[in-house]
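Tokens as discussed.
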């Protein structure tokens, strides 16, 4: 993989304590293309931001302003929007290039487009990072507090810092797979994906199926597939009661609240695995998450 070439300017900086080096250099469009092509992990491109920079480059209004292009080894950490604008405008630009030697340094950055937990997870190699970050925050809150805010106005997510999110994500193995399942189920019912992913993860965890993920070995997957497809559901079955509850909730709310999706889902799951018929769902008003029964 090729990164920006370090060129001697006579004003290069090097910190022997951290291994950080910095220099001012000209980045040419062909170099920017090589750098972008060599990246497999980075934040989602903002077309608006690239367009803004492209306009500035074409007008010759770009000034060396100290905003750095940052690399950590062969990985581009910050600057992809300016590099994309360099490519699209076909105009070289001068920039401060910073080369880090600390794998964790990027987590403390907050440059340009605000860096969030999903950006950290993206650089760490996670897929579907927006949903993973949102679902993770819901799960952490439930595991920490045993409850989740009711309604659509309260906070249903724990606050997770950028510095901690990757380590916390590793403690929830299989969450990416739950997010993928939620994405697929969303095609049938437009239920908030982070809530469905969190519910799926909780149910599979109760089964002990999250570490070695196989969609075919979990009855949780069968339960949710029946709920979301609506196929061959009998009257008073927990699957049908939950499905109807979700649809009614969607029609009554401006957006589906996470607490209802999870709490109602657990209640119906508990009845489903015990083969108990239902006629209604009574969701706790205090936000306490029901205990999940193991199959």
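Sequence:
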């Amino acid at each position: 993989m090729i990164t920006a070439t370090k060129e001697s300017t006579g004003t290069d900086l090097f910190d022997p304590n951290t291994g950080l080096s910095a220099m001012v250099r000209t980045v040419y469009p062909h170099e920017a293309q090589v750098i972008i092509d060599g990246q497999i992990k980075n934040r989602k491109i903002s077309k608006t931001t690239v367009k803004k920079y492209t306009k500035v480059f074409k007008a010759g209004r770009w000034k060396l302003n100290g905003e750095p292009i940052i690399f950590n080894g062969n990985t581009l950490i910050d600057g992809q929007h300016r590099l994309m604008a360099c490519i699209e405008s076909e105009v070289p630009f001068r920039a401060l290039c910073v080369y880090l030697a600390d794998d964790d340094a990027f987590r403390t950055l907050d440059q340009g487009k605000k860096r969030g937990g999903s950006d950290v997870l993206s650089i760490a190699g996670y897929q579907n990072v927006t949903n993973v970050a949102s679902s993770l925050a819901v799960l952490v809150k439930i595991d920490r507090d045993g409850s989740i805010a009711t309604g659509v106005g309260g906070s249903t997510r724990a606050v997770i810092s950028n510095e901690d999110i990757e380590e916390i994500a590793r403690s929830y193995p299989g969450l990416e797979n739950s997010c993928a399942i939620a994405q697929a189920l969303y095609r049938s019912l437009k239920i908030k994906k982070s809530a469905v992913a969190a519910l799926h993860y909780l149910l599979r965890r109760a089964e002990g199926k999250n570490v070695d993920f196989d969609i075919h070995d979990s009855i949780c997957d069968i339960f949710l597939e029946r709920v979301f497809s609506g196929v061959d559901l009998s009257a008073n079955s927990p699957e049908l009661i939950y499905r109807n509850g979700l649809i009614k909730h969607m029609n009554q709310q401006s957006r589906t609240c996470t607490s209802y999706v999870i709490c109602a889902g657990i209640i119906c799951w508990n009845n489903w695995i015990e083969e108990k018929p239902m006629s209604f769902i009574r969701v706790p008003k205090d936000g306490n998450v029901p205990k999940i029964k193991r199959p």
